[in-house]
């Protein structure tokens, strides 16, 4: 990491709440919590139990924040080299490793207590497995071992709707697994678009992301193929009777836009397209789950 005057000043100032807040990857956590909440509302025909809704949201959110903090701790030496991440609290020294460990441990412990005693043990166990899957299995092993890291590790990131569902019902339902499958298939084209845009940074730190190991053209093809698969998978809620016509129309329109981005990435060398595709993929997932939620109460 470059030793700049700005970074020296960052290290010298006291830690404040914003430093800890940035350790949690708030945008990622917000998306996780949103999909979990949608899972909660879809789990019942009416409104979910308010206590389970509040405590489930809090517990899942804290666990996600704790996992994100552990991820930053374990990846700090790589984050310090990559331009996209070198301004995070650990590389800049605004938060020390012991402080980050204490923070992450506290969030994770509190989340487990809330979920176990305030929600139900099944949700606590599944959330703990997701936390370990992302913070340890993906970050420590998969991320540095295989170009398929995001495909295998995506299971942890796809769990929130299932966690939300079990928080309300205490059971894993087939419809919850459909929501899991949608996010699981969405994750590779979402993240590979970013990996193409940041290929040189990943190569610099030796992380074998798909475009680093197999090249950009190969990855662009895979983004397109996974997007086609994603559009097909998003039809399952309608095909199984889980959702109605509003969701179907939304899934087709949103999927069509995603396919357009993926196709443009495949045939064009426009350097802005990977990041535009990455940005759209986030909007896409939020809009798709919003459509599921609205359709649930209108049809």
Radius of gyration: 20 Å
User: What percentage of amino acids are in beta strands?
Assistant: under 5%
The gross shape turns out to be: flat
Helix content: over 70%
Report on the biggest sheet: none
**β-strand number:** 0
- End-to-end distance: 54 Å
Question: What structural class results from the helix and strand content?
Answer: mainly alpha
Would you tell me the overall average pLDDT? 92
Helical stretch tally: 17
Low-confidence stretches: 1-10
N-to-C SSE string, H for helix and E for strand: HHHHHHHHHHHHHHHHH
What does this structure look like?
The protein is mostly helical. It is built from 17 helices and no strands. The chain has helices at 5-12, 17-23, 26-42, 50-74, 76-79, 89-92, 97-119, 121-145, 149-157, 160-169, 174-197, 199-204, 210-214, 216-233, 236-239, 245-267, 273-298. Helix 3 (26-42) packs across helix 10 and helix 7 (97-119) runs antiparallel to helix 8 (121-145). It starts with a helix and ends with a helix.
